[in-house]
Specification:
The protein has a domain of 156 residues. The model has no long low-confidence stretch (mean pLDDT 84). It is of the alpha/beta class and 224 residues long. It contains 6 helices and 9 strands, in the order H-E-E-H-E-H-E-H-E-E-H-E-E-H-E.
């Protein structure tokens, strides 16, 4: 019921309020595993992708959000599941592997999984070097990769704003990328790096952002 509510009630309501300009949505394959690789401008990017993609999209979510007790905890867990979140443990040495395994399961089941290759949202508006997890997923599952560029989402909830604001939003889906030529080579770090760079270049062409060939530090790493 919650999935139906999100898809047929909440989704249309959000689109009516924000009227996002969506381009290239026909580039999302109707069937089979699809890996959406997007730039990351704001905390609400996940919601924007959810409500503009024609298929149900799965994302990573902190496992602790799914373990609340009582009626409230169960409601939150079911709501997150309806929104497409997949629970995964974070903050430990195995977190990266757990995240990849969660994404791999979605793709192996023929679903759509979304990832932000930069690893965190951009605080300076530039596009930063991508982590190779996106390539590992694409190569190990054979999923088509659809690059996505988000525009204006940082205006929905600027730093310090508690309530989302109306903002002009644009979402551009690029042509799907096929890496089947590298079948069986997913263990090669050089291949993973090459595939990741190709994906990031596709996002760059769509977004027009300035590119920085260094990883973006997470906010909690600024003082480190």
């Amino acid at each position: 019921m919650l999935s139906l509510l999100v898809r047929f009630v909440l989704g249309p309501l959000v689109r009516l309020l924000y009227r996002p300009r969506v381009e290239g949505v026909e580039n999302v394959p109707e069937h089979g595993p699809v890996l959406i690789a997007a730039n990351h401008r704001a905390a609400l990017d996940t919601g924007v992708i959810t409500f503009t993609t024609p298929r149900k999209v799965r994302f990573l979510g902190k496992a602790e959000y799914f373990t609340g007790k009582g009626l409230k905890g169960r409601f939150i867990a079911k709501s997150l599941d309806a929104l497409g979140y997949v629970p995964v443990e974070r903050g430990n040495a195995q977190a990266g592997l757990a995240a990849l395994e969660a994404g791999r399961k979605v793709l192996d089941d023929g679903g759509v999984f979304a990832i932000y290759p930069e690893g965190t949202r951009s605080l300076d508006g530039r596009l930063h070097r991508g982590h190779t997890g996106v390539a590992a997923l694409a190569l190990s599952t054979g999923a088509k990769v659809v690059p996505v560029a988000l525009f204006g989402t940082e205006g929905i909830q600027p730093n310090g704003a508690r309530i989302p604001r109306l903002a002009k939003i644009r979402v551009q889906f690029g042509a799907p990328l096929d890496f089947s030529r590298y079948e069986g080579q997913d263990a090669s770090s050089a291949i993973r790096r090459s595939v990741t760079d190709e994906i990031m270049y596709a996002i760059l062409e769509l977004s027009g952002q300035e590119y920085v060939d260094t990883y973006h530090k997470r906010p909690d790493e600024k003082s480190a």
